[in-house]
């Protein structure tokens, strides 16, 4: 039997005595259970009382190849016995060098320089600062603004939050934030009746053109999440938008920042989402799946042209000003190398396409559900839009927290689903089986039935 001191109840009580959790109203935990996880096994998490939970969201979209993956764990252990960390200013090490070489090899052509940071938000900060600083070094100090998409989310540090369009965050922290120009999202869900995703993309590119005609002279970059606006509700759009975006950025002399933090490393069906539009951004931000969920690490890939704008005598004052204590951490770099080696050694993307096809078949019947306005999918990301009225797409009031009902039902069934408001989504580890996908979908279906019943 479990030691009572290490039971779920005991660990939860200890947690709630001192800890403050992210994106959480801690008062909720007077009724919503805190779940202490003691180990992972493939796509599963095991709590202190021995209950198992299928991780349907890859623990905030980070895990690719299963929890406690033995191959990655062995690489981490080997590196830990050799070099755990070293200052990355004036010093270097082989894991960082090898990882940069491998990232350049697999990235869209033209991305040849790698700048490391600690997490996704930090990568966005790097890209924003680097874009602004590039234009400053080029004699264009008037370029100080950014264009983001409506409904966008790029992180929660102040710069990243500044180019995000989440009403709650902007209402709370508005006095601290930069103000971006917002281009209408090419989100296919918001298309006109009868309009195809490609037609939505074309129309929204015209909106972006108008914005650039007015503001390109003061704009550093356009920042987007390619193909899927994840935290904004898993909004999905056609690759044509990225093709047109690249052309517009070239025409109006602004940078294209691709936030591939959540969508990179196979989530959308290709290694990087930008590949589906055959475009190379000026900056590509990576994190999350970069280390398959093992350690914090991010990277910003950029071009030689941008790098050379900073390369000068010290006295010129053009050096890029950004650093983190754990920049280029050897442990994280070695884990990332092993993650990329798995992509190289195993048919990951092929298997993902098979899994995605199975998931699509299982979700198809939900399209007729009276409280489902949309079922959408891009690769290994799928989402279900719950609404109060299907005909008008009238949403449930947010105060009713219908998504929370699905989450709680999932926990009772041994499944981790963490909806975005009233959007139920799936983003499982790539080691999930078809039978486990069936469990995810069946649990979501039964959870939705409970959630929409008054």
Automatic annotation (TrEMBL):
Binding site for pyridoxal 5'-phosphate: 120-121, 259, 324-325
InterPro entries: Aminotrans_3, Aminotrans_3_PPA_site, BioA, PyrdxlP-dep_Trfase, PyrdxlP-dep_Trfase_major, PyrdxlP-dep_Trfase_small
Domain of life: Bacteria
First-level EC class: transferase
Catalytic activity: (8S)-8-amino-7-oxononanoate + S-adenosyl-L-methionine = S-adenosyl-4-methylsulfanyl-2-oxobutanoate + (7R,8S)-7,8-diammoniononanoate
Predominant place of localization: cytoplasm
Alphabetical keyword list: Aminotransferase, Biotin biosynthesis, Cytoplasm, Pyridoxal phosphate, S-adenosyl-L-methionine, Transferase
Subcellular location: Cytoplasm
CDD domains, per the entry: OAT_like
GO molecular function, one term: adenosylmethionine-8-amino-7-oxononanoate transaminase activity
Record-listed substrate binding positions: 60, 153, 288, 323, 418
Keyword S-adenosyl-L-methionine: yes
The protein's Enzyme Commission number: 2.6.1.62
Cofactor(s) required, per the database record: pyridoxal 5'-phosphate
N6-(pyridoxal phosphate)lysine sites (modified residues): 288
UniProt-annotated site: Participates in the substrate recognition with KAPA and in a stacking interaction with the adenine ring of SAM, residues: 23
Self-association and partners: Homodimer.
HAMAP family in the record: BioA
NCBIfam families named in the record: bioA (TIGR00508), PRK05964.1 (NF004624)
Function: Catalyzes the transfer of the alpha-amino group from S-adenosyl-L-methionine (SAM) to 7-keto-8-aminopelargonic acid (KAPA) to form 7,8-diaminopelargonic acid (DAPA). It is the only aminotransferase known to utilize SAM as an amino donor.
The family this protein is said to belong to: Belongs to the class-III pyridoxal-phosphate-dependent aminotransferase family. BioA subfamily.
Full protein name: Adenosylmethionine-8-amino-7-oxononanoate aminotransferase
Gene designation per UniProt: bioA
């Amino acid at each position: 039997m479990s030691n009572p001191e290490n039971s779920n109840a005991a660990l939860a009580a200890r947690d709630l005595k001192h800890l403050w959790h992210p994106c959480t109203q801690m008062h909720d935990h007077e009724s919503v259970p805190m779940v202490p996880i003691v180990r992972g096994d493939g796509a599963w998490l095991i709590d202190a009382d021995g209950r198992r939970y299928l991780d349907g969201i890859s623990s905030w979209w980070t895990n690719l190849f299963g929890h406690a993956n033995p191959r990655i764990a062995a690489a981490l252990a080997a590196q830990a016995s050799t070099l755990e960390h070293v200052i990355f200013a004036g010093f270097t090490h082989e894991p960082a060098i090898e990882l940069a070489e491998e990232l350049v090899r697999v990235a869209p052509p033209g991305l040849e320089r790698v700048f490391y940071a600690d997490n996704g938000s930090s990568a966005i900060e790097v890209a924003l600062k680097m874009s602004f600083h590039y234009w400053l070094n080029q004699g264009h100090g008037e370029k100080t603004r950014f264009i983001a998409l409506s409904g966008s989310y790029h992180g929660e540090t102040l710069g990243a939050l500044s180019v995000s369009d989440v009403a709650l965050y902007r209402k709370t922290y508005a006095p601290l934030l930069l103000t971006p120009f917002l281009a209408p999202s090419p989100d296919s869900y918001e298309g006109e009746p009868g309009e195809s995703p490609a037609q939505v993309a074309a129309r929204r590119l015209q909106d972006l053109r108008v914005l650039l005609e007015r503001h390109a002279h003061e704009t550093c970059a356009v920042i987007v999440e390619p193909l899927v606006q994840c935290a904004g509700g898993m909004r999905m759009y056609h690759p044509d938008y990225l093709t047109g975006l690249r052309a517009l950025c070239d025409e109006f002399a602004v940078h294209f920042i691709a936030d591939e933090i959540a969508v990179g490393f196979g989530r959308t069906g290709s290694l990087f989402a930008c590949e589906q539009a055959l475009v190379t951004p000026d900056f590509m931000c990576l994190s999350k799946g970069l280390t398959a969920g093992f350690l914090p690490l991010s990277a910003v890939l950029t071009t030689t042209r941008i790098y050379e704008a900073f390369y000068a005598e010290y006295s010129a004052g053009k050096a890029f000003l950004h650093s983190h204590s754990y920049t280029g951490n050897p442990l994280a770099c070695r884990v990332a190398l092993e993650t990329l080696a798995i992509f190289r050694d195993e048919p990951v993307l092929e298997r993902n396409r098979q899994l995605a096809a199975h998931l699509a078949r299982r979700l198809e019947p939900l399209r007729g559900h009276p409280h489902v306005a949309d079922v959408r999918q891009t690769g290994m990301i799928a989402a279900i839009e719950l609404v109060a009225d299907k005909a008008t797409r009238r949403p449930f009031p947010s105060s009713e927290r219908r998504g929370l009902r699905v989450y709680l039902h999932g926990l009772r069934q041994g499944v981790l689903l963490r909806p975005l408001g009233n959007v139920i989504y799936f983003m499982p580890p790539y080691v999930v089986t078809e039978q486990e996908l069936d469990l995810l979908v069946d649990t979501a279906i039964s959870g939705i039935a409970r959630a929409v019943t008054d």
